[in-house]
Amino acid sequence: MTQDQTTGPDAATETPAPWRPSRTVAVVLAGGTGTRLGLGIPKQLLKIAGKPIIEHTLAVFEAAPEIDEIIVLMATGHVDDARQIVEKAGLRKVTKVIEGGDTRNATTRIALDAVGPADCNILFHDAVRPLLSGRIVRECVNALWTYAAVDVAIPSADTIIQVDENDCITDIPVRSRLRRGQTPQAFRSPTIREAYRIAEGDPNFAATDDCGVVLRYLPGTPIKVIDGSDENIKVTHPVDVHLADKLFQLAAAQAPRLTDHRSYTEELTGRTIVVFGGSYGIGHELTELARRLGAQVFPFSRSTTGTHVERAEDVEAALKTAFEATGRIDHVVVTAGILEKGALAEMDEETMDRLLQVNFVGPVTIARQSLPYLQQTKGQLLLYTSSSYTRGRARYALYSATKAALVNLTQALADEWADVGVRVNCINPERTATPMRTKAFGEEPEHTLLAAEAVAQSSLDVLISDLTGQVIDVRRAPGDGPSPTVPAQSGSGRVGSPAGAASAS
């Protein structure tokens, strides 16, 4: 894309009028059909991280203070689907959801009509780029004060080759001057309107994006390029779905951490939290921390209350106890679990059954019993997995399998329960100093383990967040010494560092 081109020999003799846009409009282009993904629905309606892709995208513009209005151009036959998403998500900036055209350029023309004649800033963005950052939106809008057209791009890490009709190389451009284009593409409305007006007279008109239309038909107009991001991927192929989901997982790991004791108290006062597995380890630390910050917490466990998580009657009684005491249940936390090592062929049936019942049947039972309560408060179910969920290891076959099952359960329930406003997340701590781990591995150097208090703090941050369908990694920062005890007013666990603990957590 050309950058900072001259505007012609007479440009210096004229002083352009200052740009005074009436508003800034984000146009979300959602006309794709998902054929390359092999889906029966448009790819923008596919759910990632508990929400349709288009909802993630719209939420970015909804939260951006620079954006005044959002217009959605939806694929034929799915306008009502998009409207329902907008209504359910409470996206107040969305003013129109209309049908797009047969091509990208036709859709842009429809969008320009929908925007109206007043001078304004317009940002065109692909609905299937859900990981757009607020920083990119801000820089696009700011650039329009100086430039009439703005593109977003990132450097190419690969060598780009040019080939002929026989797929033989004809040229290898200098990579340092090449960029890979992304969206949004931003324009002053008179500029993009004029480019399309001129294009109408060209019988050979063809362009893959809107900056290409400006470049071709208004060649004297500088097109400013701002830095995009590697995360701003376009969901086009099946692998992109997995990449986007993993990127959302990494982004979700940055769970909002409040700044002081008072903020946590304001969030938690009046809330009821039920903790299954609350007698020791992470569950105990979470119980104590949440209580200090004002929540009403009800811990249940096999050792202290005789509660067996795999027994539906025990779970029902526990939830009933908390509800009758406070009249509500806002969060249900399941830290209960057991770790049994050993070769599968040598493990006795009683041990196998106990591990499967506690680690998997228990969370499933709790999830089923908790839903009616959590629906009332639009609350959250919080589960716990282990770093071993990513790859099963010898002598941990059933433990690893149950932890992987909890990740899939989290994602499935977040999808199922989204319509009733119940969130589901899963904490993935690295090796943590808990009695269960000590029993399995013996004493270990303190500086190699994450403190249970730090995991409890991160868990609390997730509970008071809006996250759903996420696996949140909790890690010590590289070079950390022993994990300190977490005081009531702050947390010391690091959230969001890359996973990679080698032993079961």
Give a topology summary.
Blueprint lengths: L23 E7 L16 E2 L2 E2 H11 L5 E6 L4 H11 L4 E6 L4 H12 L5 E6 L7 H10 L5 E7 L6 E2 L5 E3 L7 E10 H11 L10 H8 L5 E5 L10 H15 L8 H8 L3 E5 L4 H12 L3 E5 L11 H15 L4 E4 L14 H29 L2 E5 L12 H20 L6 E7 L2 E2 L1 H7 L8 E2 H12 L6 E6 L18 E2 L10
Parallel strand pairs: 1-4, 1-6, 4-5, 7-11, 12-13, 12-14, 14-15, 15-16, 16-19, 17-18
Antiparallel strand pairs: 2-3, 6-10, 7-10, 8-9, 19-20
Helix pairs in contact: 5-6, 9-14, 10-11, 11-12
Pfam families: adh_short, IspD
GO molecular function, one term: 2-C-methyl-D-erythritol 4-phosphate cytidylyltransferase activity
EC number: 2.7.7.60
Walk me through what this model shows.
It is built from 14 helices and 20 strands. With about 500 residues, the protein is α/β, with parallel strands linked by helices. It starts with about 25 loop residues before the first strand and ends in a 10-residue tail after the last strand. Residues about 1-10 and about 480-505 have low confidence and may be disordered.
Protein traits:
disordered C terminus, 2 domains, 505 residues, 36% helix, Rossmann fold, Spore Coat Polysaccharide Biosynthesis Protein SpsA, Chain A
Quick structural gist:
This protein is of the alpha/beta class and 505 residues long. The protein has helices spanning 53-63, 79-89, 104-115, 134-143, 189-199, 210-217, 238-252, 261-268, 281-292, 312-326, 349-377, 397-416, 435-441, 452-463, and strands spanning 24-30, 47-48, 51-52, 69-74, 94-99, 121-126, 149-155, 162-163, 169-171, 179-188, 223-227, 272-276, 296-300, 331-334, 380-384, 423-429, 432-433, 450-451, 470-475, 494-495. It catalyses: 2-C-methyl-D-erythritol 4-phosphate + CTP + H(+) = 4-CDP-2-C-methyl-D-erythritol + diphosphate.
